[in-house]
Structure formats: structure tokens, C-alpha cells
Amino acid sequence: MRFALFLALAHLRRRPLQTGLALLGVGVGVAVLLAALSLTNGFTGGLVRATLKAYPHLVLFSFTEELPPLPFHPEVEAYAPFAATKALLTRPAEGARGPGVDFATLVGLGEGGEGLYPELGLRVEPGGIYLGAALQHALGAFPGDRIYALSAAQERVELRVLGSFRTGNYLLDSAYAFVDLGTVERLAGLRAQGYQVRLKDPWRAREVGWALADTRFFPQSWQDTQRTLLEQLALQKRVLGILVFLIVAVAALGVANLLVLKVVEKTPEIALLRAMGASRLTVGLVFALEGVLLGVGGVLLGNLLGYLLGLYLAWRPVDLPGELYFLTHLPVEMRLADFLLVSGASFLAVVASSLLPLLRALRVQPGVVLR
């Protein structure tokens, strides 16, 4: 083992430029892959955070006509009774401003509603409404304006615009508005449908939902209602990872090319070693160790470069056009799991690429070469 390691290190040191380029190729591939995954994580996290600014972590629908009290759970941060309905919002023409009209989902919140969405700063009061930023723009409404909500049952309620909110998720900003629970009851004849719940850790919504569920409630977590979005983001990350991993595969082929050239160059030495009594296993171990050393070195270099690149992108984030995306810059979220997965896959790719030169070295026939 020591003899094989000595020869492997000697081979790598003999051609420092080729060895350095092979290490750099693997390292750059690993670093680019880690940076791409970190940016994807940041984008996904940013979109989820934007969505949860105005979307409940957990909804508990009541099976009973009278809304029962909510059971205690230490993960619950805030909760409020709610009812939601679709309505046509209209703003009458005033002065030089023409009328405005648009459909929206009205979410009526009862006592405790202010604590559900602290980032929005809602102060819902009877007869008032908070509009999503895009919905406000479509209606041409400003704080203090009068608008009317018309239900499918032809009930009409006059509301005063209290303000607007912006989550960054256009689907919410263009179609959601918050009112008090009494407004939805008058408009659609609905009583409280259940509770909207805010949790300390939104990713535990399913677990908490089933813990709170009994014969009186049916739980619905945000992961269930936003399943399509989460699946699309996960698919995007997988596709991006596969595409960028091709860079590592190309670098692994470079390692294979380097080792094949070494086998061709060292064929006489291999034959001499075999003639002096070295076994096939020893000869194969030399080139296997070269592949392992290049793999380990390239992966370590790639992890270092990827970490430094992630720090740089966090310090100087990539700017995004605010009118097209919900983020003005692309955040970075580095995860240990990604580093471990990329390191393992890249190392296996480099080691697998060394199998071809290893097999070629094992097929060297000392008698034929020495003759």
C-alpha cells in the first residue's frame, strides 16, 4: 500500500501542470454546482417567505356549525377565526379618475387577525379593507377611497380602503384583500369557517395540523395548498443540478484522459515492475490511488471555492429587475446537505473515470513490452 501510494504521488508530482489543471477542472465544476444550488435554495426560500407573508401556515376547517375553541399547542404563535369569499370590487369614478373594477378573494379575519401576518401591518376594522398592491393598482384605489364589494348573491357592501400590502408574490398581491369577519358574513352569509393559524416553524404545519385535528377540525397546511409551487421549485433544482453536474462530468473525463496518458507513458515501467515481482493488484492500486487523490483534492478545492463564491454572492448579490420578479436581488442559502451530496457525487464521478486507465494498466503484458 505504501509503495503504491509513493508511486501515485510521484506520478502526480512529475507533471504538476497537468495535475493542477485536472484538480482545477474538478474544483471549478464542484464550485459552480454548489453556487447554482445555493442560489436556487435562496430563490426558493425567498418565494416561500413572500408567499407566507399573506398566506396562513395552517388552516383548521370546522366541521361544526358553531366554531369550537382551538386546542392548545406550543407551536401556535397566533390564530384567528376566518371566512373567505369571492367578490367583485368596484370603485366609482371620481373627478378625473375613471372607475375601477376587479375580482378578488376577500379574507375576513376575526379577533387576533393582526397577529397572523405581522409583516403586513394589518389593522382590520369594520367597514375597512386592505388591498394587495397589484389589486390596488388595478382598481386605481387609494387609502380613504370608497369601494364596493358585490357577492354572487348580489349582496353589496361599501368599504373604505385602509391601505395596501405587498408580499412580492403576484398571485397574492393581485387577487387577495383582507377585511373584518363581519364584512364577509354580511356579504356572503358565511359564518366563521375555521381558524387561520400562524406557527413558530411553518415547515411543521402538517405535523401540527394533525396534532390539532380531531372530530371538530380538518387541517390544511400551506404545503398542501402550495404543493404545485413546491414541486415546480424542487424540479427546477433537480434539473439545474443535473445540467451543472455535466461540468463535473467533463472535468472527470479530463482526469481520465490524464490517467490514460500516464498509463501509456508508464507502460515500460509497469512492465518492469511486473517483471520484478509486483502484482497486478499493486499496479492497479497505483492508478486507483491517483484517481482517488485527484478526486479528493478536486472536491476539497471545489468546496472551498464554492463556499467563497457563496459568501461573495451573499455580500454582492445578483440584482433582479423588481418589476419582473418578486425579489430585487437573488439571495444565497448554502446548505450542508448540498455540499455533502455534491462532494459525494463528484468524487464518485472522478473515481469512476479512473477505472478505464486502471483496466488498461492491468492488461499490460510484461513479456510483450520488454521484448
Task: Note down, in words, how this protein is organized.
The protein has 371 residues and is an alpha+beta fold. The chain has two domains: 2-49 and 229-370, no CATH class; 58-223, no CATH class. 53% of the residues lie in helices and 19% in strands. It has 13 helices and eleven strands. The protein has helices at 2-14, 16-52, 133-139, 170-173, 181-188, 205-212, 222-225, 227-265, 267-275, 280-315, 336-353, 355-362, 366-370; strands at 58-62, 76-91, 100-109, 128-132, 146-150, 156-165, 176-180, 194-199, 217-221, 318-319, 329-330. It has a six-stranded mixed β-barrel. The protein has a two-stranded antiparallel ribbon with strand order 10-11. Strand 5 and strand 6 form a beta hairpin. Helix 1 (2-14) crosses helix 10 (280-315) and helix 10 (280-315) runs antiparallel to helix 12. Residues 367-371 have low confidence and may be disordered.
